[in-house]
Q: What sequence folds into this?
């Protein structure tokens, strides 16, 4: 009987210590796992943020490239008459827009809607300007008609869309 009590007395501290070590190490490894998961979430967030920022940059670049001033400077010298220039302007806008369609995945729905409205407005201004000149008129006459139409337009959807995009980019940082 004495040996059993002695045996229990000698094993009990080791058993207690083993249980304490087990629970402490389990808690430590759980904390480490949570830290790893948090670090992965931060890395994922950084990656997604980078992709979203690139999308906003590309969409703003799209809008800048289809602004009438930039578009007329790029296309104006390559066309001999208003009809050719009209076709080239519309084709360029279509290509720019189609090239950036996938960016809508990364920006908000209201921002993409503003981009679509801005693109449609640019097309509308070009078409109205083209309707005011003969197709065989010199290209510069079409350019003047388009710019006049833009000046008379009550709202600049392009700048509205750019401002909305910039606002959303700023909100990503706050």
A:
């Amino acid at each position: 009987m004495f040996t059993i009590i002695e045996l229990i007395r000698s094993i009990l501290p080791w058993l207690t210590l083993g249980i304490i070590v087990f629970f402490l190490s389990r808690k430590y490894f759980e904390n480490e796992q949570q830290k790893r998961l948090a670090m992965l979430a931060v890395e994922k967030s950084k990656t997604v943020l980078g992709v979203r920022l690139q999308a906003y940059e590309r969409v703003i670049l799209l809008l800048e490239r289809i602004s009438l001033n930039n578009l007329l400077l790029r296309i104006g010298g390559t066309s001999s008459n208003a009809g050719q220039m009209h076709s080239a302007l519309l084709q360029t806008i279509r290509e720019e827009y189609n090239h950036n369609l996938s960016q809508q995945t990364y920006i908000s729905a209201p921002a993409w809607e503003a981009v679509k409205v801005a693109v449609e407005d640019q097309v509308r201004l070009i078409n109205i300007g083209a309707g005011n000149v003969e197709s065989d008129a010199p290209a510069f006459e079409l350019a003047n008609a388009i710019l006049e139409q833009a000046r008379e337009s009550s709202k600049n959807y392009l700048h509205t869309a750019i401002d909305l995009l910039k606002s959303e980019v700023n909100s990503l940082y706050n």
Q: What stands out?
A: The chain has a mean pLDDT of 90. The radius of gyration is 32 Å. The CA atoms of residues 59 and 101 lie 9 Å apart.
